[in-house]
């Protein structure tokens, strides 16, 4: 086959192979490169953190145990309200000696009472613990969601609009921060209940829970608000926010579409720290006698009872104490892992 003719004065003509002009097909077995979203990258970094994964499973286990408390006590054949040491129905299986102390090893552990029994009354420790976990976790989750939502909304408003709006929000925040929280809890809780409940009557459990929720909410949103405000102040001058303003986007759309997605990371990290802190606060209120009281099972009430029995029966406080320490430690380590997954530059 003769070569194609060349035009006079033109450069050499190069004949291209048609196979070279086609798009190369990927080699068999070669991985296809795909872009990953920030959420996928975060999830991959989190899965590589063994400590974070183990702590996440521990937290999930606690939540499952708390939600399944009625089923677990049904399996164990106990409940948190029966006085096994005083109820004549169970006189054929004594659990307390003549001095009101548990019979048997390590606080009365047996096949009927897996974690032993309470001195003086003989209530089952396992049943009180799982129901106490349920009470504390549900209460802490509700309080944390409420105060986090309030803090995020107030922080977004103050940080984005600035000016006099930010000034007055800042002064209100300073006012609430001026209250000594622990002392205010102890002093204010009886005042709240006395307004609505006759002192001669017993305060209903639901009302105590509602009063605790209100007090913890009013005195707990300020930290989240200041964190979100400081983040929004640094974001509102960024180029993408200015571009949204120039395009005519409304403030609500800018906050919702441009700013809020960029503050999700500190919100999630703060949530993992706030929840165990709230559980400890609720336990403190019950321990101080202004939270949940008899016969409502609660972590703090278990510690309050354990302080009375510490010398005669130190085993009574062992399982509630270990459960609380493990949960708080796991949740704090989980918060560190979530922070490192979102921001790899802050790795431990």
Relevant terms:
348 residues, elongated, mainly alpha, single chain, 0% strand
What is the strand and helix layout of this fold?
Elements: H1 18-21, H2 38-48, H3 50-67, H4 69-76, H5 125-161, H6 163-177, H7 181-196, H8 205-218, H9 222-235, H10 239-246, H11 251-259, H12 264-287, H13 299-308, H14 318-342
Helix pairs in contact: 2-14, 3-5, 3-14, 4-5, 5-6, 5-8, 5-9, 5-12, 5-13, 7-8, 10-11, 12-13, 12-14
Please characterize this protein's 3D structure:
By secondary structure, this protein is an all-alpha fold. Helix content is 61%, strand content 0%. The chain contains 14 helices and no strands. Helix 10 packs antiparallel against helix 11 and helix 12 packs antiparallel against helix 14. The protein starts with 17 loop residues before the first helix and ends in a 6-residue tail after the last helix. The N terminus is likely disordered.
Condensed summary:
By secondary structure, this protein is an all-alpha fold. 61% of the residues lie in helices and 0% in strands. Residues 1-23 have low confidence and may be disordered.
């Amino acid at each position: 086959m003769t070569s194609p003719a060349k035009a006079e004065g033109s450069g050499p003509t190069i004949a291209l192979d048609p196979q070279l002009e086609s798009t190369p097909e990927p080699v068999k077995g070669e991985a296809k490169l795909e872009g990953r979203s920030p959420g996928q990258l975060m999830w991959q970094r989190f899965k590589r953190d063994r400590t974070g994964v183990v702590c996440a499973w521990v937290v999930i286990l606690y939540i499952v145990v708390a939600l399944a408390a009625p089923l677990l006590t049904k399996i164990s054949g106990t409940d948190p309200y029966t006085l096994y040491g005083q109820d004549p129905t169970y006189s054929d299986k004594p659990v307390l000696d003549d001095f009101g102390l548990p019979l048997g090893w390590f606080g009365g552990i047996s096949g009927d009472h897996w974690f032993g029994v309470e001195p003086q009354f003989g209530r089952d420790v396992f049943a009180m613990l799982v129901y106490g976990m349920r009470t504390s976790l549900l209460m802490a989750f509700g309080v944390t969601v409420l105060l986090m939502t309030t803090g995020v909304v107030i922080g977004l408003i103050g940080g984005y609009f600035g000016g006099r709006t930010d000034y007055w929000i800042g002064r209100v925040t300073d006012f609430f921060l001026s209250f000594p929280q622990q002392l205010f809890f102890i002093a204010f809780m009886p005042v709240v209940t006395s307004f609505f409940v006759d002192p001669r009557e017993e305060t209903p459990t639901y009302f105590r829970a509602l009063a605790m929720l209100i007090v913890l909410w009013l005195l707990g949103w300020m930290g989240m608000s200041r964190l979100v405000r400081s983040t929004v102040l640094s974001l509102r001058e960024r180029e993408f926010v200015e571009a949204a303003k120039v395009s005519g986007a409304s403030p609500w759309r800018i906050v919702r579409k441009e700013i809020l997605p960029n503050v999700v990371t500190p919100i999630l990290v703060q949530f993992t720290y706030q929840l165990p802190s709230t559980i400890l606060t609720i336990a403190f209120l019950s321990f101080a006698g202004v939270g949940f009281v008899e016969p409502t099972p609660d972590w703090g009430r278990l510690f309050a009872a354990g302080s009375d029995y510490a010398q005669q029966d130190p085993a009574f406080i062992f399982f509630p104490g270990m459960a609380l320490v493990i949960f708080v430690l796991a949740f704090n380590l989980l918060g560190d892992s979530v922070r490192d997954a979102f921001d790899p530059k802050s790795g431990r």
